[in-house]
């Protein structure tokens, strides 16, 4: 299995709620630079948080890649979601090549958990950072971090 974890691009500092924060112009540029790292990859699904900035990020990637499948919004990719739940949901999907678009602290904790098997080494994902993990199963400690790119 290959799993890509993308943190949303830079977002405006304030909105009516955290979920409503939108990407800035700089954030959109960051996302497009990160999307270039996904060109030619055999993605089967793009899953995104329902928060506006993650939706905008996923839509930019979807368009840049010319991805044929519809973008999927899932409630288990919000900033405070449980990484163990994300792993369980990924296992249920049964897909081999998935892109997740989400937020800190979830993305750092998830990448660290998949790579190290615990929460002590969260991955340092800045805005629009893209992590690529590979392994036989999406289980804690059983995936290898192949790359971590910051735009």
Automatic annotation (TrEMBL):
Species this protein is from: Pseudomonas fontis
Superkingdom to which the source organism belongs: Bacteria
Name the UniProt record assigns to this protein: Phosphohistidine phosphatase SixA
Gene giving rise to this polypeptide: sixA
């Amino acid at each position: 299995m290959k799993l890509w974890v993308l943190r949303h691009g830079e977002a405006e500092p304030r909105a009516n709620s955290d979920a409503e924060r939108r990407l800035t112009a700089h954030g959109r540029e960051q996302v497009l630079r990160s999307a270039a790292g996904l060109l030619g990859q055999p993605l089967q699904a793009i899953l995104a948080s329902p928060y506006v900035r993650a939706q905008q990020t996923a839509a930019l990637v979807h368009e840049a890649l010319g991805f044929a499948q519809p973008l999927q919004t899932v409630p288990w990719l919000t900033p405070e979601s449980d990484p163990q739940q994300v792993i369980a949901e990924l296992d249920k999907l049964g897909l081999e090549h998935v892109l997740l678009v989400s937020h800190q602290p979830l993305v750092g904790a998830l990448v660290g958990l998949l790579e190290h098997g615990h929460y002590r080494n969260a991955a340092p994902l800045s805005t629009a950072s893209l992590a690529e993990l590979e392994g036989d199963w999406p289980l804690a400690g059983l995936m290898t971090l192949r790359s971590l790119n910051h735009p």
